[in-house]
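Dear colleagues,

As part of the handover before I leave the project, I'm documenting each prediction I ran so the next person doesn't have to rerun anything. This entry is a single chain, and its sequence is reproduced below.
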Amino acid sequence: MKTSLPKKYHLVILGATLICLHMHARADDIDIFVGSSGGKAVASNVIFLIDNGPNWSRQAQKWPDNGGTQGAAELAAISGVLNSIGAAQPMNVGLAMLNAVDAGGGGGGYIRFGARDMTIAANRSALQNIMAHIGANYASPMEKIPGMANKDEAAGLYEIYKYFNGLSPFTGGFLQNVQADISGNTATYTASGQGLTSGFAIQGGKYQTPINTAEACAKSFVIYIANNANNTGSSGLAAYEPLVANAGPGLAPTALDNWTDEWTRLLYRSGVVTYVLDAYNAQQNPQYSAALMNAAKVGGGRYFHVGSQAAITSALATIFAEIQGVNSTFASASLPVNTTNRSQDKNQVFIPMFRPDPDALPRWMGNLKQYKLINTGSDIQLGDAVGNPAVNPLTGFPNDCAISFWTSDSGTYWNNVTTNPVPKGRCPTTPFDPFSDAPDGPIVEKGGVAEVIRKGNNPPFTNTSPTWAVNRVVYTRSGAALTGFTAASSGLSAQLVNFMVGQDGNDENSNGNITETRPSLHGDAIHSRPLPIDYGGTTGVTTYYGANDGTLRAVDAGKGTERWAFIAPEFFPTLSRLMANSPLINYPSMPAGITPAPTRKDYYFDGSIGLYQNADNSNVWIYPTMRRGGRMIYALDVTNPGSPTYKWHVGCPNLSNDTGCTAGFSAIGQTWSMPNAAASIKGYSSPVIVVGGGYDGCEDANTATPACTTPKGAGVYILDANTGALIKSFNTMRSVAADVALVAIATAGVVDHAYAVDLGGNIYRIDFGATPASWVMNRVAYTNGSGRKFFFAPAVLPAPGNQVYLALGAGDREHPLQ
């Protein structure tokens, strides 16, 4: 490492950990949740259930392709998407169909092709050959159910339930069904007839479950392609109806006219998610479509209307992307407790949490939870609200029985919330229901601040008598002041405003109440670090943090109450995506052909928060940043933590252009660097903040030499902490995403030097002279190799003899998989 040092001060670099990474793709650090982490991806189990009733070969729907019949289009679309399955994203795929109701044995469904590994060419070829045979004969009595009275899709789902659970067949094992996947059925249009010797659905009279107990992370799915015509009766109904009725309290009565939604819900509670494709073009049965929508909702999947082969292909591509996201997600419930992303004040440990959506949806669950340190007699550990160790040492996650502060019993609240994974507790000793918020354990969305707000935001009353009412104070900025966040003040639709303040307009818990709080009202807190401020006296501690639901929050740390939230107008353009939960996040592994096209994840107040606090708490100012969420720095006066006021903001309102930038800040990048406050600095009579210029998206390119020659964020800004006035700025060679380290050498408490680092491996020192005009910055060191990125501020240690020791770490944190 070459250095350029002045005579007066000696710079000593201690242990710069320089990590040279192999680089080949454009990415950011959330890609770890869907990319390979060094282990073998686990295959999902997917069963297609085809509705081969009379409608799939009728011309009345005026299907626009495949000769006017939807059955042929469905089979062709399935065959096409099978070719997208590769070794990096393996999948076991099978096929089920309906068989006719008859007096001799009833009807329902059968497994035509057991779930087999589609990365094996022989398996994929066999399934495609079978589907080609069905497609050539879809109008024949061998492949089509004669008459709607013979269609029993609910019994077909029951058959799949038995298959997944390794039970005896219901109707799918009748010997007269020579098309079922039984080793003795050797016709050319069966798996055995295609030369396969294993993976049969039925052996010895019982289903052989495709679920491999050795692969606990594998998920199972049903994709039901229905041809928009309900069955009118079933002689087999009496045989399985008592089993459904006795399956458990999760199966509530329904006013809809079939048992399909009951079965998809039972499958979901058994760990099997159901997607539904409602295939129709010219004619629709609205009541049946409504039943299918509900079946998809309570089955944990999604509903798609499809009216052409292209629409089926697009829907299946989307579903496959979501399925593949489940099993490649790095953390399915929460992240390990990380000492670099938690804040402690007194004996209060605040941990922000997030759960990546396993279906690649953009709305992620999040929370803020509080724990404490406890003495176990042998060491100090993180403890929960009742004084027990909170962390499972084998996993790094909170253990199943841990109860964080502010968490209380909520009965069976989560039982009716369809989310992936199912938020079902696993504590063996709790008196509470598995779908209660308590104990919250490793489940991100349970307990914590999120539960307090959902219950009515008025503990302790709403802990035991929840109102589920939206009881929040939410601000936005109008000009140079904070104002209530409403449709009038924001210019947004009332529907979107209601969603943002937490109303359950989409009825996420399926109880019919769309004005209560929604289960997903607290978004992910990925990079934001909680800032606890102790006001002393009866006010106590208030914790400030940002989340990627668009808000900056202030939380009373004593009760968990949200004091207020703030939504910046710069975020308005992307809020509708949170409500729609679409389009999907564009991870590197996303397949082509998804509509709408996936885009990158949106962020909001996802950066660190700077703080200026004087000795008597008469001035308490915070400076939230946006990281990838934007190019702005805000200043809020929180001297009264319950009544914030706007001070100023600087930067640019748009990520992609410089329109509307504050004068002097057109070069600012994404605001990654925490504004570092100095109460006293040489050469200036008022408090200042010193902040790095930020990050440029061009640095996402996985190469040592990004193509951008004039990156945003290549500089350091020094501002008046009270007014936001720009006092001085300095240019650097590359973007400064790290915090700037301040140091007082000549006079204790008076900052006279600062050290900054950039993403090109350069180290700079700022010398503060008698006036701002005399402040200067010099590059004092740089690394020999290319690609040495400094994302974190140097640790600074003043030493005798006017020496300063710096410790730095280098590496490309935005490419964690490389």
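Residues 309-328 form the longest helix (20 residues). The chain has a mean pLDDT of 86.

All the best with the project,
I.
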